[in-house]
């Protein structure tokens, strides 16, 4: 750590203030303020004296106080499900890049899929006066945000819509993507297809299940209750669900995994089984092409989701006041091998 | 969006203030302040009137102004290399969990390995008065931080040490881990081993290269210049480097990949070649065990790195003033197949 500064103007436990700078430079406080804010009305000599004092004291402008006076904090909040989930990484970075282009800092945190934690985090961000919010909702009731929105905090929801309020949302076509993925399996001959998804209260999990049911129905296929499992994406639960579907009285010949977390565990379980089972996963994962067989996925564009949401947010902050809109981005089926395995026959 | 509120007290473009609450409740401002801050001296009836006014107006305490008066912002900054890199995900989350346990918000951003961007981000965080900083440094000169540290912003560096200043640092044993990984290849018969790492100015890249040279020297093996390549981790550059080492006059029989980004590309290149080439990568990656062959890695514990750094930061913020220390966490070699392939003989 740097040595304790022996200069009398610099009190160890306090930052140098503009008053300290004024005293050292032998000028008035207003003069220092003009120099710091780049305002005219200061002779070059005086400006140099002030800059030297700033340099010598290590003075740094306090933007917290300054932004309070101007009304904007130049920061936005991003509430994700899980900072460690690789799916959110590109979304996080895309939002950060848009924020940076607008001179704003990004504050982010995870809700861990807990509606109470989401609310706590969102309100903490509002209490710190973020200019705008991008929220991946964990809960289904966002009326708690209405006072903030009314007070001018622009809010855009991502990945899932807001609950019980009208707000901008940017998301992927979960229903259509899942339907296409399941139809792909049906097209390769499968009749008994399992669906393993996230917690039932999560919007995307439901939409993808809806897509599964739509594809089965459109093909005139019944969907056995034993072939559908929604719940935690923890490896233990998913392993149990996949295993039950493979060993039950009506074993499946294919599995549709509802998101990247489920897919990773499903790949592991299937790799340990002798019988080949087809697999399509929602969300692409790193190295999917290097697995044997290569992984067939319904891919989202997390970068585009993040960028679209952030662009929308800054247009709102710049004054756009059109009605809240829902922007749905298409998914993309990438066939690499696992989804084209035919139904196993003994 | 919520309908414009017609209540006269709520001006659409302004937040309700404590004065608005006082007016609505018919009490003095000090009384409202006591209720908001949970201080004694307010009768239950009066408190209820104030709470009802707060509720009706949608008043929310302004923590920005409040924390300025108390001196702490209850926020810490985290500067990473890249928010989208899966390696940093667990580190990010670990820091966030420690911060949350201390009631602090986490503000993070990426330096994109650019020292200028790192400095800009760090100073922006300081200007917003974060209580502490966790920095994965991109640059090698951190004297610009001395005034901030002197003013009380606790700072802990992670993954690589600070440059030219004395500060807490938590990192993995890059040198020892790389040495162990290369020795592992030597132990399986390899004499011609390639090293592909990140940009030469990055501390971890250098430490791992040092470990490579140490292992080669300890085994009495020369290290041909053509077997060492440091530079961008972009797939194009890494592909070129790996290919050159496999097709050169002294082709390598094994490759040591300096980090997860290099490993991912190396796996791809080697998968497309006929000749089996051994591979050990620094950093574990998802699904490493499902590749064929399974990937042998020298693994770091990103979660432990993040948690250790954050714990250290909060102990500093709580007043610990022992000398800055360097905490080095051991790595762990995980043999899964790719590192045990013997040298190919035609």
From TrEMBL, chains A, B:
Q: What are the residue boundaries of the HTH lacI-type domain, all occurrences included?
A: 16-70
What does the UniProt keyword field contain?
DNA-binding, Transcription, Transcription regulation
Look up keyword Ligase and say if it applies: no
Q: Which InterPro entries match?
A: HTH_LacI (IPR000843), LacI/GalR-like_sensor (IPR046335), Lambda_DNA-bd_dom_sf (IPR010982), Peripla_BP_I (IPR028082)
Name the Pfam families on file. LacI (PF00356), Peripla_BP_3 (PF13377)
SUPFAM superfamilies assigned:
lambda repressor-like DNA-binding domains, Periplasmic binding protein-like I
Matches recorded under Gene3D superfamilies: 3.40.50.2300, lambda repressor-like DNA-binding domains
Which CDD domains did the record assign?
A: HTH_LacI, PBP1_LacI_sugar_binding-like
Supply one GO molecular-function term. Answer: DNA-binding transcription factor activity
Stated name of the protein = LacI family transcriptional regulator
């Amino acid at each position: 750590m740097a040595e304790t500064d022996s200069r009398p103007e610099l009190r160890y436990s306090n930052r140098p203030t503009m008053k300290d700078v004024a005293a050292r430079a032998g000028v008035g406080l207003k003069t220092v303020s003009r120099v710091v804010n780049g305002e005219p009305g200061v002779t070059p000599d005086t400006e140099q004296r002030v800059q030297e004092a700033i340099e010598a004291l290590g003075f740094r402008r306090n933007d917290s106080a300054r932004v309070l006076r101007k009304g904007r904090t130049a920061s936005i909040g991003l509430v994700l499900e899980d900072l460690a989930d690789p799916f959110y990484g590109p979304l996080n970075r895309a939002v950060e890049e848009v924020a940076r282009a607008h001179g704003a800092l990004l504050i982010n945190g995870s809700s861990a899929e807990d509606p109470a934690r989401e609310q706590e985090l969102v309100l903490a961000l509002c209490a710190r006066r973020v200019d705008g919010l991008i929220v991946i909702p964990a809960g289904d009731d966002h009326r708690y945000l209405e006072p903030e929105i009314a007070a001018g905090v622009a809010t855009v929801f991502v990945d899932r819509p807001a609950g019980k309020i009208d707000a901008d949302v940017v998301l992927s076509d979960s229903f259509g993507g899942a339907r296409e993925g399941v139809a792909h399996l049906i097209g390769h001959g499968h009749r008994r297809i399992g669906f393993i998804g996230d917690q039932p209260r999560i919007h995307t999990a439901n939409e993808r299940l809806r897509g599964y049911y739509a594809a089965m129905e459109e093909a005139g296929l019944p969907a056995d209750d034993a072939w559908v499992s929604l719940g935690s994406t923890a490896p233990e639960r998913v392993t149990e669900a996949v295993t039950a579907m493979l060993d039950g009285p009506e074993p499946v010949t294919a599995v549709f995994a509802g998101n990247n977390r489920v897919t990773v565990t499903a790949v592991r379980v299937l790799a340990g089984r002798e019988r080949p089972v087809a697999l399509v996963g929602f969300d692409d994962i790193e190295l999917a092409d290097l697995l044997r067989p290569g992984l067939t996925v319904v891919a989202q564009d997390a970068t585009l989701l993040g960028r679209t949401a952030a662009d929308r947010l800054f247009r709102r902050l710049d004054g756009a006041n059109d009605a809240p809109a829902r922007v749905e981005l298409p998914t993309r089926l990438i066939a690499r091998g696992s989804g084209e395995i035919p139904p196993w026959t003994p």
